[in-house]
Amino acid sequence: MSAPKRVGVVGYPVKHSRSPMIFEHWFGRYGIDARYDRIEVKPEDGEAFFATLADSDLAGVNVTMPHKAVAARHAKLDDAGRRLGAINTLWRDGAAMAGTSSDGSGFLKSLDAQAPAWRGRGAALVLGAGGAAVSVADALAAEGVAVRIANRTEAKAKELADLVDGEVVAWDRLPDALAETALLVNATSLGMTGSGPLDIDLSPLPAQATVADLVYYPLETPLLRDARARGFAAVDGLGMLLYQATVGFERWFGMEPAVDDELRRVLLATF
Ligand code: ATR
User: Fold this and answer.
1) Which fold, 5-101+245-268?
2) If you take atom 18 of ligand 1, which residue's CA is the nearest one?
3) How confident is the model over 156-201, as pLDDT tens digits?
4) Ligand 1 centre from 152 Cα, in Å?
5) Considering only CA atoms, which residue is closest to atom 8 of ligand 1?
6) Residues 127-145: pLDDT tens digits?
7) Could you tell me the distance, in angstroms and rounded to a whole number, from the CA of residue 216 to the centre of ligand 1?
8) Distance separating alpha carbons of residues 27 and 21, to the nearest angstrom
9) Which CATH superfamily is domain 104-236 in?
10) If I label 246, which of 10, 91, 184, 267 is the partner at 20 to 30 A Cα–Cα?
């Protein structure tokens, strides 16, 4: 009998990662003999870990802070990985490792699932310029969507706008920008339990607009509640978290796993 396939998430800290719950749910559902470990690798040990990953017993890994950039230096990168210089999913490719950043593609899959009419409607406005905003803005730009960025710290907005060939919108000019926005994405931490509120008036948005929030705790943020009350298509942040995980699963086990209500319930029970 062969040993179970071993995969996992590499980070520091990694104790609180919810990825094992997602993968164990799929292992049970599809009868796959595998284990998904939390692999704690200290920041100073990242280089050595990824340099020798291909020689280990791991079939592949997800990567979280602080190792996404070092992982990218030890893998054959796809387009998204090359553009971002940081990856969160690695798999075996011959004798070496290959990798991608699955957050952006996970976000697009989540939009397609929860608001399929979003495509072809017009420009996106991304609020925020941190790691999550970079992945989302990059994925949208790669799909040919015109991207605008607004961020409290405008220098970071400028940096991201340059990366995605987009425009900066000053934080205090949001109302004007909303009138020309087909897809509004909150990629700041505002609206998350314990953070401040995202104070934004959605009334200038066109009627066909879609509103997406990357915050998933609470699942229905004040922004999404307001968007739904106004009749906009609304996309919650849990979708991105779950769909980004499907990318590794597909690479390691050769099939696309389902993101359905049962999996959403499993994850929600952990909050
Ligand atoms: P992540 O990796 O999840 O994107 P992050 O890199 O810490 O997290 O980014 C958090 C984002 O939320 C940033 O865009 C941040 O704005 P700054 O670049 O100005 O820090 C934004 N953010 C956090 N608190 C905020 C607040 N009170 N008002 C406006 N934006 C805020």
Assistant:
1) Rossmann fold (3.40.50)
2) 153
3) 999 999 999 999 999 999 999 999 999 999 999 999 999 999 999 9
4) 8
5) 130
6) 999 999 999 999 999 999 9
7) 15
8) 10
9) NAD(P)-binding Rossmann-like Domain (3.40.50.720)
10) 184
